[in-house]
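Entry for the shared binder. Reason: the reviewer on the internal report wants the predicted structure included alongside the sequence.
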Amino acid sequence: MMAMMEDPMAQTPARTDHDSIPEIALDWHRAGRGAVLATVIETWGSAPRQAGSQLAVSGEGEIMGSVSGGCVEGAVVTEALQALQDRRPRVMTFGVSDETAFAVGLACGGTIRVLVEPVGDGPEALSEGMLAELVAARATRRAVAMAVRPDDWSRSLIGTGEDVAVDQRLRADRSGMEEDGRFIAVHNPPLRLIVVGAVHIAQALVQVARICGYDCTLIDPRSAFGSAARFPGEVIVEDWPDEALAALAPDARTAIVTLTHDPKLDDPAIRIALRSGAFYLGCLGSTRTHAKRVERLLATGYSEAEIALIHAPVGLDIGAKSPSEIAVSIMAQITARLRKG
């Protein structure tokens, strides 16, 4: 059974989320406020934001997101408002050798190119229909990429299995320019964190994970632990862990952490998680506890190679003591696994 807060909107991340830039731009456009999408398409050196980073700008000068961590946003906003007037996209370049870049503060030693696209009417603009199609794909957790050619402003929305270059970028979760002149913006499904055990560490962990852009789900059949009072606004599943995990269908965009260190609860979840395709599995418990866990898994037919996928004791060894510090160490390890493999 799934327990939720009375207000269903409490389950949906706020639209101020910096991971919802296309959605915000579409909302602004449909509200008649005007919208421009600015996207980092190339970087060199120590540029502060990677390719694919986006900034939405409304016709009223409101912004959401970032293309440089604050260095060039002012210049981009000015250009975005001009793009709303002439309905034409453009590419802006900022670097340490550029006087404009120095004027706006890009003195960190990097160079960035930013694509600025007005949304709506205009033969070269980003159409409302294409942006709406992208937003719909994101809403269904479908991996897609937006490809645009700055030489003629042609655009296409491409799914998995349709283009070799796109498939490679979706797997690597890395937007960028291709040799054929296309910029491919990757839109993978949101990352998910599934936590088994609504314990004190979980209270801190879901907060840290949400800051890092993860959709979180808690699993705990013990209603006293997984209560809305202890986890306000969180999705809590009260089914047995293996049943809950099977229903949630973890994938390559999912991290799983078990925190109960009770074999009756953790082991069923671990057995499902090991063969689920999740990119990370971390389990709370001492080295001795994990050794006993390994014995149980071997006895039930799991191979040493499969068991080696478990991160245990969970988290990076940073000397963490408090629940919040342990949560930081876990999130750091998840990030390392995601980004470094």
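Summary line for the report: The longest helix spans residues 323-340.
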